[in-house]
Amino acid sequence: MTDALLGAAVLEPDSVVLDLAAGSGDPALTIAERLTTGRVIALDSSPTGLLLADSRARQVGLQSKITWVQADAHAIPLVRNYVERITCRCGVMFFSNTRLVMSEIMRVLKPGGRVALLAWGQFEQPFFENTVSVVLRLVSGAEMPPQARTMFRFAMPGSLERELRAAGFRDVTEQLITVPRIWNASPQELWTYLQEVSTLCHPLFDGIPAALRAKVDAEVSSALKRFGCGEALRVPANVIVAVGKR
Question: Exposed site from 11, 90, 99, 133, fewest CB < 10 Å?
Fold first, then answer.
């Protein structure tokens, strides 16, 4: 997913890159690795994620290339025409006012600069069908939490492209692509990790009855096992990648 996003961004080695919704540091760390004289400004509203990201950057010696900024993407604390590239991986779906964020992106991006956004495709795809859908099928009355549905708000073809065009970006393109999401973990470890980090789905996972827990765990692990490749899992992920130029 990171490779797809950064390929669309067409990074230059001396670029100043703004990564929005940077979370715990991916893809900001990968961007920093690919730059020589350039640098990354990684922005996120969560201080916890940024602290973890900074720790990871120091472990691999990339701290000098990255500036961590706790801020809201609706009010980016940069001056006009400041960065050459803007990236956002699986974050654009959660901005409450997409039009405002797009106008902020346009403001801080230099003329000729490029924005690349990656969002989830339809819910009906291997990763979710073999995890979340198992819970929905086995637990009577279970429903996808409303906040979790926002992950798929740009899954409809053309919807993210329209947001970029409405904001005034040119040479806009959008693609639905399938990439392998690689996990160096066992099926059960992946399932445990997903339940821990997918905060939007916590109401669904917390609602699994104790009597059904073992059955759900076994079915998810069995479903994920078929994506095994050596000691890793390679689960196909359907994502939307949209690009625009200022």
Answer: 99
